[in-house]
UniProtKB/TrEMBL annotation:
<feature type="domain" description="Smf/DprA SLOG">
    <location>
        <begin position="86"/>
        <end position="283"/>
    </location>
</feature>
<comment type="similarity">
    <text>Belongs to the DprA/Smf family.</text>
</comment>
<protein>
    <submittedName>
        <fullName>DNA processing protein DprA</fullName>
    </submittedName>
</protein>
<dbReference type="Pfam" id="PF02481">
    <property type="entry name" value="DNA_processg_A"/>
</dbReference>
<dbReference type="InterPro" id="IPR057666">
    <property type="entry name" value="DrpA_SLOG"/>
</dbReference>
<dbReference type="InterPro" id="IPR010994">
    <property type="entry name" value="RuvA_2-like"/>
</dbReference>
<dbReference type="InterPro" id="IPR003488">
    <property type="entry name" value="DprA"/>
</dbReference>
<dbReference type="Pfam" id="PF14520">
    <property type="entry name" value="HHH_5"/>
</dbReference>
Length: 351
């Protein structure tokens, strides 16, 4: 393994298996040194420009690199047995949408067909009401009808509904997992995961085999859902729901944010309060309601000022402008300037 290219999946896996080296450090080392033995042989001063003195010293231990390489090879062997591809950030088929993120994972595990650039995230509460169930199906139907792939997290609730709707309407869907691809969570969605693969979709994770979907990993997964997507659709959530993590990542990554507006009795449901906040409150008030702090709060206030952070979808009549805005955004991928929002939607009931 010493002669392994650092930018390969084997090289990145070896580096991240070393004590004290995280994803960002591994990527920096791979950019600086072409093969692993160049790291072992590098002068201390050159290494210390990339890592700390303690890590630089440990990198000069050939046995450490050797054992890390053995661990990396075991991961690659298991991936081969399971039909999983292991992609390095330096591979040409690593998703460009993720490559642009500052906190991108240097290694990605993929089973099935990689998500296309025409992807949108569809997420929401694990306990949707009738409103959440209906809008999940209608919005996904409109999206896949315009050739957008659906990204979600395979969780129960809106995630499951979104995956199922995509498959039912002959669309492609991608499940971003919070744990390793050797285990489906939740277990009751194992059949759904297989159907996603059978119909040309994919299972994606940044976590190695054997890693469980811990609370921290679930939040980390959320940034990949929005990161893979042009836009995020939040079907239903309360103001403190887990979906608000994906909302935060969506806005920090300068992705579009859409939400269907509940009307009548549906507006009074607890699971609708997050939707009402992001579609009706000015950004300053939304920041307070969402308890946004630091950089996130700054982005909300500076980018959105006195307007809501989400594009509201009040009825199916708004789908045309929704699809137009998606097409405009994908045609300008790479630009940092937020795009103009559509004209104010009608107030017709979504249901």
């Amino acid at each position: 393994m010493i002669g392994t290219e650092t930018r390969s999946a084997a090289g990145i896996l070896t580096l991240t298996a070393l004590r004290g080296i995280g994803p960002a450090t591994a990527e920096r080392l791979a950019e600086r040194f072409s093969i692993l033995d160049a790291i072992v042989e590098a002068e201390p001063a050159k290494l210390r420009s990339v890592v700390s003195a303690a890590i630089a010293q440990s990198l000069h231990e050939p046995t450490a690199i050797f054992h890390a390489g053995e661990k990396a090879q075991r991961v690659l062997d298991e991936a081969d047995r399971r039909g999983v591809r292991v992609l390095s950030i330096f591979d040409t088929d690593y998703p460009d949408a993720l490559r642009s993120l500052s906190d991108r994972p240097p290694i990605l595990f993929v089973k099935g067909k990689l998500p296309p650039r025409r992807s949108v995230a569809c997420i929401g509460t694990r306990e949707p009401s009738e409103f959440g169930e209906i809008v999940s199906d209608k919005i996904v139907e409109a999206l896949v009808g315009s050739k957008w792939a659906i990204v979600s997290g395979l969780a129960i609730g809106v995630d499951t509904l979104s995956h199922q709707a995509a498959l039912r309407h002959d669309g492609q869907t991608i499940a971003v997992m919070a744990g390793g691809l050797d285990g489906i969570y939740p277990k009751q969605n194992a059949k759904l995961a297989n159907e996603i693969l059978e119909k040309g979709g994919a299972l994606v994770s940044e976590q190695p085999f054997g890693v469980p979907p811990s609370p921290r990993n679930l939040v980390q997964r959320d940034r990949l859902q929005s990161g893979l997507s042009i836009a995020t659709f939040v079907m239903q959530t309360d103001i403190k729901g887990g979906s608000m993590h994906t909302v935060r990542f969506t806005l920090q990554q300068n992705r579009l944010l859409f939400a269907p507006v509940p009307q009548g009795r549906h507006a009074a449901e607890p699971k609708s309060q997050g939707i009402l906040a992001m579609t009706q409150l000015p950004a300053m008030q939304f920041a307070d309601a969402a308890r946004a702090e630091g950089e996130y709060r700054r982005i909300l206030i500076e980018r959105y000022r006195n307007r809501p952070v989400a594009v509201p979808l009040a009825s199916r009549e708004d789908y045309a402008s929704m699809l137009d805005l998606l097409e405009t955004r994908i045609s300008s991928v790479g630009e940092d300037t937020p795009l103009a929002r559509p004209s104010a939607p009608s107030q017709m009931s979504m249901l």
